[in-house]
Amino acid sequence: MSKADLQRPARERTTRRKAVLFCPTCGHESHARRGDWLVEHRPTDEGDVVAVSCPTCETTLTVEPAFCG
Ligand SMILES: [Zn+2]
Q1: Bridge-partner residues for 41, per DSSP?
Q2: Cα 57 to middle of ligand 1, angstroms
Q3: pLDDT in tens, 38-65
Q4: Nearest alpha-carbon partner for 47 in 63, 36, 30
Q5: Alpha-carbon gap, residue 63 to 38, rounded angstroms
Q6: What span, in angstroms and rounded, lies between the C-alpha atoms of 50 and 66?
Q7: Which of 7, 20, 54, 56 is deepest in the core (most CB within 10 A)?
Q8: Is 13's pLDDT higher than 60?
Q9: Distance from the CA of 34 to the center of ligand 1, in angstroms?
């Protein structure tokens, strides 16, 4: 048994779908940028962030720094 074998990536077919987000809670699937996700800008002490939430169950999927021009 080798850990290297287990960690070998076998996802070459997923590259075309990398822009699709999945909700881990309800399974909702939509395009990361053009989908129906709830995108909310939130100011924080370290700068603005963008929170992406599921429109179905309101689970927050990702919180990323906001790059404003
Ligand atoms: Zn959801």
Answers
A1: 50
A2: 4
A3: 999 999 998 999 999 999 999 999 899 9
A4: 63
A5: 12
A6: 5
A7: 54
A8: no
A9: 16
Q: How far, in Å, from the CA of 23 to the mean position of ligand 1?
A: 5
Distance 39 CA to ligand 1 centre (A): 14
**Distance of alpha carbon 27 from alpha carbon 10, whole angstroms:** 22
How much distance in Å is there from the Cα of 48 to the middle of ligand 1? 24
Question: Cα of 25 to ligand 1 centre, how many Å?
Answer: 5
pLDDT value of position 53: 95
For the chain, how big is the Rg over CA atoms in Å?
A: 16
Cβ proximity of 17 and 32 under 8 Å: no
